[in-house]
Amino acid sequence: MRGMPHSITSVCERKWMSRDTLRVPTDMHVMNTVLKWVGDPEVRRNMYIAANSCAKDNLPVLDKLRAKRHELARCLGFPTFAHLATSDRMIESPKAVEDFTRDIARELMTKAKTEQQLLLAAKRKHEGSSVNHVYMWDLPYYMGMLKAQKYGIDSRVIAAYFPLENCLNGLHLLCSALFGLELKQVPMLNSSECWHGDVVKLALTRNGETLGYMYFDLYIRPNKYNHAAHFTIRCGKRLRDKSYQKPIVALVCNFNKPAPDSPSLLTHAEVETIFHEFGHAMHSLLSRTEFQHLSGTRLRASKTMFAAMDTQTQCLYSMLDLRLFEKQPLPCSPPTTTQMLHELQNSSTL
Q: Where in the numbering of this chain does the Peptidase M3A/M3B catalytic domain appear (predicted)?
């Protein structure tokens, strides 16, 4: 486990039979870190297989589920569950999925083979000339190595530019500059409202009116949900008295907690993750529908992702624009990214 960040080794358990042996959890973020930083190929292989395996007792359950899915599809008039699953998506059919993936593979194959040879050469240099294959558990390690050697890209250096506190300030900035909203921390109603001491409650307001509430649960801890996600706790909907039920959401991530002598630093991928999930949260909080089953992210998945991907894509450009040019009076010429998004959001939201 040499080369592993302290944030990962700190969540490992030492086996009782040896002080030098660690029991490593197979959570996704732990696996990704092991695959990226551990040089021992056997450790990477074992980690990858363990994290991507399931208990044998689950296999017959999955077989039954697959059969029931097929039965459900046939009852609803579809030849397969794949036809049912794609019927209300933008892709529309299994054939379109196959054609799309085949076209993408054909377009990328030449480039992929070239990069595969680069990875194989790097692996041979590190593990010996007799190596003939690059496996899935090799990719993160050797991709990181080549990026560092060829382009001088080191994710640990990049992370120094993204303290979590600055990224959260960026979320506040986006709310204000692009949406005309304010995101402010508010106290919990009582002790039972908060499921952990790390959780923070925020209110999303506009001109003094509260539009909804958001919980931030951002730090890694044992037995916590180990992915990043936006969860809808309560949907918005029109009530019988014509008032509107305020939506409540939770934004859950697994970032490292700040140490006494250093802040919590995010990789570029983690920065994109928090803005992506924040896009989902804003979708839920700003949505105004008559019925809760149509509220926020309860849309077709292909359309639900737009708000998240759009926020993820635009957030860094907007922050960069404000950082470089400061605040500018509107309208200005030529229009800035911030101005264009500001006008778009004002015309398309509350």
A: 36-299
